[in-house]
Design brief:
SH3 type barrels; two-stranded antiparallel ribbon; 3 domains; Arc Repressor Mutant, subunit A; six-stranded antiparallel beta sheet; about 45% helix; binds zinc ion; 8 strands
Length: about 230
């Protein structure tokens, strides 16, 4: 969707920025930074994102912190957690029941997000056997997700020689998500950092017995558990 993102989509994005893994993706934490990051992730203008953040503030879903940074209120956090959980269950409905690929599931789940009531989502979850993760590795249970964040790091932060297992894939960039699957960079895959070339904006990894270069953007979106 190029325009007209719902409050829930904004909350989902803010949730992702509020519980980062490692340093990525929030660098400064100030309000302009948040609006910019939200704008970047939802591919809307900085002005549209700023307007929507004001609306979320008026509705009591976010508040300004000590340094004027935007923070989720308790109400906002609870709603954001319901939104991400729902999104992940619907993704599993799309892959497990409807036969979509993991790469396709994210965008379709965004489109379907507002279709199902909470009761419907609970019934889907039950029928799917209470899946633990979305197809891209993100836990369905937000408490577990936040706990697990402490054990993960973006691949980009690993030193040469480090080995790790891919656990989650950044999913807000549909093209990048497809690329991860095309390249076999999927949850459960083991990876070893061989060399970093920051000047060239890439790192070299060993994957499936072969060495290959991965760009910075992709390395920042692969969340791994160091061995
Ligand atoms: Zn997902």
């Amino acid at each position: 969707m190029a325009q007209g993102h719902s409050i829930d989509e904004y909350l989902e994005t803010i949730y992702f920025l509020a519980f980062p893994i490692g340093e990525y993706p929030v660098a400064g934490g100030s309000s302009p930074t948040l609006a910019s990051r939200v704008a970047e992730m939802l591919r809307v203008s900085r002005a549209s994102a700023g307007e929507m953040l004001k609306r979320l503030e008026r509705e009591g879903l976010i508040e300004r912190g000590e340094h004027k940074e935007a923070l989720l209120t308790d109400t906002g956090r609870a709603r954001a957690e319901r939104v991400v959980r729902k999104h992940r269950i619907i993704e599993r409905l799309l892959t497990d029941f409807m036969g979509y690929t993991a790469a396709e599931a994210h965008v379709h789940a965004d489109a379907l997000g507002d279709t199902f009531t909470e009761d419907m989502v609970e019934r889907i979850d039950e029928r799917l056997g209470h899946p633990e993760r979305c197809p891209h590795g993100w836990p369905v249970d937000p408490d577990f997700e936040q706990e697990e964040n402490k054990q993960l790091a973006p691949l980009a932060e690993l030193e040469p020689g480090a080995r790790a297992t891919i656990v989650r894939l950044a999913e807000h960039d549909g093209d990048l998500l497809h690329w991860f699957y095309d390249e076999g960079l999927v949850p459960g895959r083991e990876i070893e950092v061989r060399d970093a070339q920051p000047a060239a904006g890439q790192i070299t990894v060993r994957l499936n017995g072969a060495e290959r270069a991965i760009g910075e953007k992709a390395a920042a979106g692969l969340f791994v558990k160091p061995a």
